[in-house]
Specification:
- The protein is α+β, with helices and mostly antiparallel strands and 195 residues long.
- The protein contains four helices and nine strands.
- The strands form three sheets. The chain has a three-stranded antiparallel beta sheet with strand order 1-2-3, sandwiched between helices. Strands 4-5-6 form a three-stranded antiparallel beta sheet.
Length: 195
């Protein structure tokens, strides 16, 4: 059964031995196959607070005590869903390429789009994002913690008509009331000087 309790999902998972991690990995892959559209699952999503997760996009992968060692090229607005939050989609910031180490692998592995085939590259990118999502679960981070939040636009402050401002043309500097400085600034010959 998939955990849907946000508080439980915010707990960091404990490291695990390879033997126990492999047993948890088998159980996670079984649970993942039972889901309708899941492509990744972390142990804490089924109530096991251990650092194991699985991903099945291009092939089934088990990660025991995984760590992201490097990342390249931040991508904004990646739509993500989660088995613990059905029917919710959040746009996140993720990395296009990552290098991951795990205790059950001899060498670090690189994930991200490398194929010239567009469809294969999309699957490789999806796998890369899913791995980041699942490792986040193990660190107590949900997709909502990675959500992009639009910042309100703030227009630059316009000086008041009689407010004194400093302008420069690169050589000379003048301090004038804004009503006299404004035509000079708007002409493009002068600009507001930073104080």
């Amino acid at each position: 059964m998939i955990i849907k309790d946000k508080i439980k999902l915010q707990e960091k998972c404990s490291p695990v031995s390879i033997k126990e991690g492999e047993e948890i990995g088998v159980r996670l892959l079984h649970e993942l196959r039972q889901s309708d559209n899941g492509i990744g699952l972390a142990a804490n999503q089924i109530g096991i607070n251990k650092r194991v997760c699985v991903v099945n996009v291009t092939e089934p992968l088990v990660f025991i005590n995984p760590r992201i060692k490097s990342s390249e090229q931040e991508i904004l607005g990646v739509p993500e869903g989660c088995l613990s939050y059905p029917n919710k989609v959040v746009k996140t910031k993720r990395w296009k390429m990552i290098t991951v180490e795990a205790d059950n692998w001899e060498e670090p592995m690189v994930f991200g789009p490398t194929s010239d085939d567009e469809e294969v590259a999309q699957d490789e990118f999806l796998e890369c994002v899913c791995i980041q999502h699942e490792i986040d679960h193990l660190d107590g981070i949900t997709m909502f913690d990675r959500a992009m939040v639009a910042q309100p636009y703030k227009a630059p402050k316009t000086p008041g008509r009689n407010e004194r401002v400093t302008i420069t043309d690169g050589k000379d500097t003048k301090e004038l009331k804004w009503k006299k400085a404004q035509p000079l600034v708007e002409s493009g010959d002068w600009e507001m000087a930073s104080v």
